[in-house]
Design goal:
heterodimer; A: alpha+beta; Immunoglobulin-like; Cytochrome Bc1 Complex, Chain D, domain 2; 3 domains; five-stranded mixed sheet; 12 strands; elongated; B: mainly alpha; Cytochrome C Oxidase, Chain A; about 0% strand
Chain lengths: ~325, ~550
């Protein structure tokens, strides 16, 4: 892109990696980000060298030769001022368009992404795979498959950062944020917390293990036998008594939750919003604030009774209801 | 430093009475209404703060020579970088050029006898040292570990350190900024001498004017934000805590609404100083006066609408990200225009290389790199990778140390003969400038590489593959530390033993060079009348 031949980029990237000036690039977006980075570096070097050369040339050529010598008056040509205003502006437009289109493209996960859930807490990363296995400060993923992380924090703001994948996102308490990546090579890569979170911030680090699909399947099958997150969520759903109002048949006291994820819902004030992880969470913790238009506000709050891990399992269950219906209905 | 200044009255100035020896004793300094003396009170205070903050930096860099950390527990390291940031930003960089050189020079440069509100000016200093003393005490008696950014809910609910006391110190010092800004704006509007029209003002005054606007408009926001943080911490009011309906990102929006413009509070005065130095040492009118002047104002205005670029990875909406990205690119343009105009000012000049000029040229070089690396962070896709890493640390140190502190040092050396009436040894000053330049680049250039490689900032320990670059950076920091101590020594020395400077040792233009050194308490025997543009060098040899 933008004048970089693929060969030129590859050889430059290889040189920088050899000199250890370039981090491993192991995701589908990493090379694109690196190309932009190298282009920006080129702009920086070009202008820095240009300005320094001119300054050094003037310093030598116009150095003071006698103590009483004054400078020679020059006028300020408007054309010159306009030139050095417009050219940087045009470069900035190019950079903005390039960087923004890449950002928008990188921000959108493919539909078929595997979803893994992340909880940050002082000072460790808790991860759970939809199939059930849990990990701490380690993340096992298959190569070549898009993976979406849905993340929240149990306490302060953290930030989930995998340099080799060029992805980073703040992990906040009280809401869900997400990133996605598609690993392109197997290996072991750093996982960092990149938002200062207190005393042992620098120990809130871990490893991402990118495995071949067969190794990954073996890893999933190899650990302790656990139920899937949706199954665990289903148990919580009955344990907390949710199903007395929200079972797929009743729908008298509260809406059925089948197929609700990803659909627009209308609130009493007339606003509609699409049901996502954060709104399911709000509906459980502060039901009166997100009540549906057709139902009375009788649901109690579950604030303080459900921890972040259980919340993610409940969300996984509600989402699984949606997919069952799609399968059965269409 | 303040004791050394107080001793000055024992040295008879060569031209008899001046502002330093007009009255005697500590009390005469503590109740002074003279803008020049107040400038020196600030100089003493912020010099102390600079070396406290600098000491924290040196200890941090020593700690980071080993991957597991060489000196401290992580808890202590966290307090070190928090102290370094808070002291350097709020108690050194923000007041640095405005409160010292600005206070000293604005009335002299516009041909006035003092600022508009001298009593308010003294009050600003007392407010400042009250806030500084509180922050310093809280820092030394246990410290704070939130970073200078105070992000909740860590700062509001989780940190067990002196968050409220330090925030109160910053809150109090903020009023000093507001009052100083107000004073400068009124002074520049109302106190210019006959003939000193807006477009004859030295560019330093334009820069001070733009800075003052930010002081007055921006500082109340950080005051409110820190007040809310204190309320949240003490009373759990639930403004930033999501568990009770608050929004932690609201704090970040409010914080950066002040703290991004605050970056320009730090760099705009530096740009003003550099415009004075480049013209004086190339004996030439500034190239594109109006472009340099208006770029200061446009930077001040645009700086208020770019804060969201600190929050690209927080989960703010994509559309907000796009708008803040394009605005951040926009603020790069007036900065570039300034660099081009300074460079063009050298063309056909008569350039000499005394220490202040070395600092000015160093400023242009380092600020250029600081500005260009800002493009990496305005660009959304690369910011995602670089945000929160050492790349950010390197970038803003190139702007704030390579830019603002270089300009401050240059300005201090340039006007030192005016302030004290004495010359410092120029050879030592040139050596120190070179040491600072080398030490600075060795400290911070490796940090760009560390950031791209993915090392997060604020880490008390780090994976061992980052060690080589960290050791390089630490080596640079020790050189940089030495570079800053040398001027402290020879400048204090020069106050007693330096050669008398005379009114205009550089052959510079500007009203401050037309009066004696050190100036009279009332600045001028007679109020000057201005008949020519600023930097009118080409017309005659100006050396006295």
């Amino acid at each position: 892109m933008m004048g970089f031949s693929q060969f030129g980029f590859d050889s430059l990237a290889a040189l920088l990696a050899f000199m250890q000036f370039k981090p491993a690039a192991a995701s589908s977006i990493a090379d694109d980000v690196d190309q932009l980075y190298l282009f920006l570096s080129g702009i920086t070097v070009f202008f820095a060298v240009l300005i320094f050369s001119i300054i050094f040339y003037f310093m030598l050529k116009y150095r003071r030769k006698s103590p009483d010598q004054s400078g020679t008056a020059t006028h300020t040509p408007m054309a010159l001022e306009l030139t050095w205003t417009i050219i940087p502006s045009l470069i900035c437009v190019v950079l903005f368009v390039w960087a923004s289109s890449l950002y928008v493209r990188n921000g959108r996960p493919p539909d078929a992404s595997t979803e893994i859930f992340v909880i940050g807490k002082q000072w460790m990363w808790h991860l759970q795979h939809p199939e059930g296995p849990r990990e701490i400060n380690e993340l096992h993923v298959p190569v070549g498959v898009p993976v979406k992380l849905t993340m929240t924090s149990q306490d302060v703001i953290h930030d989930f950062y995998i340099p080799a994948f060029r992805v980073k996102k703040d992990v906040l308490p009280g809401r869900y944020s997400s990133i996605w990546f598609q690993p392109t090579e197997t290996g072991t890569f750093h996982l960092f917390c990149a938002q200062y979170c207190g005393t042992n911030h620098s120990e809130m680090i871990g490893w991402v293990y990118v495995m071949s699909p067969t190794d990954y399947a073996a890893w999933l099958a190899g650990g302790e036998k656990t139920e899937s997150m949706a199954q665990q969520g289903a148990q919580l759903f009955s344990q907390f008594g949710c199903e007395s109002c929200h079972s797929s048949e009743s729908g008298v006291h509260g809406p059925s939750l089948v197929g609700i994820y990803g659909k627009p819902q209308r609130a009493p004030n007339g606003e509609t919003h699409v049901v996502d992880e954060t709104s399911i969470r709000h509906s459980i913790l502060a039901p009166s604030s997100v009540r549906q238009a057709n139902y009375q506000s009788i649901m109690p709050t579950y604030q303080g009774q459900i921890d972040e891990e259980q919340m993610l399992q409940l969300i996984a269950y509600v989402k699984s209801l949606g997919s069952e219906e799609r399968v059965n209905g269409k | 430093m303040s004791t050394a200044i107080a001793e000055l009255h024992e040295t008879p100035a060569e031209s008899g009475v001046n502002y330093l020896n007009a009255t005697y004793g500590i009390r005469s300094w503590l109740v002074t209404l003279d803008h020049k003396r107040i400038g020196l009170l600030y100089l003493g205070s912020i010099t102390l703060m600079f070396f406290v903050g600098g000491m924290a930096a040196v200890l941090m860099r020593l700690h980071l020579t080993e991957p597991q950390g060489a000196l401290f527990e992580p808890e202590t390291y966290n307090k070190m970088f928090s102290t370094h940031g808070i002291i350097m930003v709020f108690f050194f960089l923000v007041p640095s050029i405005p409160a010292t050189l600005g206070n000293f020079l604005i009335p002299l440069m516009i041909g006035a006898r003092d600022v508009a509100f001298p009593r308010l000016n003294l009050m600003s200093w007392y407010i400042f040292i009250t806030g500084a003393a509180l922050a310093l005490y809280a820092t030394l008696s246990g410290g704070v570990d939130t970073g200078w950014t105070f992000y909740p809910p860590y700062s509001s609910l989780f940190s067990h350190t002196h968050v409220v006391a330090v925030a109160l110190g910053v809150f109090i010092a903020g009023f000093s900024s507001i009052l100083t800004g107000l004073n400068f704006i009124v002074t520049i509007h109302k106190m210019r001498c006959p003939g000193m029209t807006w477009f004859r003002l030295p560019l330093f005054i334009w820069a001070m004017y733009a800075t003052s606007l930010i002081f007055v408009l921006g500082t109340p926001v950080i005051a409110i934000t820190l007040f809310l943080l204190g309320m949240e911490r003490i009373l759990h009011v639930g403004i930033f805590d999501p568990a009770v309906g608050g929004d932690p990102l609201l704090f970040q929006h409010l914080f950066w609404f002040y703290s991004h413009p605050a970056v320009y509070i730090m760099i705009l005065p530096g740009m003003g100083v550099v415009s004075e130095l480049i013209t004086a040492f190339s004996r030439k009118k500034i190239f594109g006066y109006a472009f340099v002047a208006f770029s200061s104002l446009s930077i001040a205005i645009i700086s208020f609408i770019v804060w969201g670029h600190h929050m690209f990875v927080t989960g703010q909406s994509i559309y907000a990200g796009l708008v803040f990205s394009v605005l951040s690119f926009l603020v790069a343009i007036p900065s570039a225009v300034k660099v081009f105009n300074w460079t063009a000012t050298l063309y056909k000049g008569s350039i000499s290389y005394e220490a202040p000029m070395l600092y000015a040229l160093g400023f242009i070089g380092l600020f250029t790199i600081g500005g260009l690396t800002g493009l990496f962070l305005a660009a959304l896709a690369t910011d995602v990778h670089l945000n929160g890493t050492y790349f950010i640390v390197a970038h803003f140190h190139y702007v704030m140390v390579g830019g603002a502190v270089m300009a401050y040092m240059g300005g201090l050396h340039f006007w030192w003969p005016k302030i004290t009436g004495r010359l410092y040894p120029d050879i030592w000053a040139r050596i120190a400038a070179a040491i600072i330049f080398i030490g600075f680049n060795l400290t911070f250039f490796p940090q760009f590489m560390l950031g791209y490689l993915g090392m997060p900032r604020r880490y008390a320990m780090y994976p061992s593959e980052f060690q080589v670059l960290n050791v390089m950076s630490s080596a640079g920091a020790s050189i940089l530390g030495i570079g800053y101590v040398i001027p402290l020594i020879y400048l204090i020395w020069s106050m007693r033993y330096g050669q008398p400077a005379g009114p205009n040792p550089w052959g510079a233009k500007g009203l401050e060079w037309t009066t004696q050194s050190p100036p009279l308490t009332e600045n001028f025997e007679e109020i000057p009348i201005v008949t020519e543009d600023a930097y009118n060098y080409a017309s005659e040899a100006a050396r006295v």
